[in-house]
């Protein structure tokens, strides 16, 4: 017999922004291909610039370890009417 309960996840949700960029765009923000960085002040305008420059090809991908685990748990739960959220 299945029991009802609450599944709560605490973590840092992330939003990946993916585009097929150009070398010019990378150079503008002092970035290297296939690299990860911690954003600095000089990168603040990059996100809106990316959305404008590559408007037809921007892909927004929600994620983060907690959100992904909660989404997987939701798929595996037997009671499909339950809502899950990540905060």
UniProtKB/TrEMBL annotation:
Coiled-coil intervals in this record? none
Q: Which UniProt keywords apply?
A: ATP-binding, Kinase, Magnesium, Nucleotide-binding, Nucleus, Purine salvage, Transferase
Catalytic reactions of this protein: adenosine + ATP = AMP + ADP + H(+)
Q: Which GO terms describe its molecular function?
A: adenosine kinase activity; ATP binding
Is rRNA-binding among the key words of this record?
A: no
Give the co-factor note.
Answer: Binds 3 Mg(2+) ions per subunit.
Q: Which family does it belong to?
A: Belongs to the carbohydrate kinase PfkB family.
User: Subunit comment for this entry?
Assistant: Monomer.
Write down what this protein is called.
Adenosine kinase
Q: Source species, please?
A: Mytilus galloprovincialis (Mediterranean mussel)
């Amino acid at each position: 017999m299945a029991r009802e309960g609450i599944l709560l996840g605490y973590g840092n949700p992330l939003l990946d922004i993916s585009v097929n960029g150009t070398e010019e765009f990378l150079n503008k923000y002092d970035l290297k291909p296939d690299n990860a960085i911690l954003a600095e002040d000089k990168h603040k305008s990059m996100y809106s610039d990316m959305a404008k420059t590559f408007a037809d090809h921007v892909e927004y991908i929600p994620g983060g370890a907690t959100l992904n685990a909660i989404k997987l748990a939701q798929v595996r739960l037997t009671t499909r009417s339950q809502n899950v959220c990540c905060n």
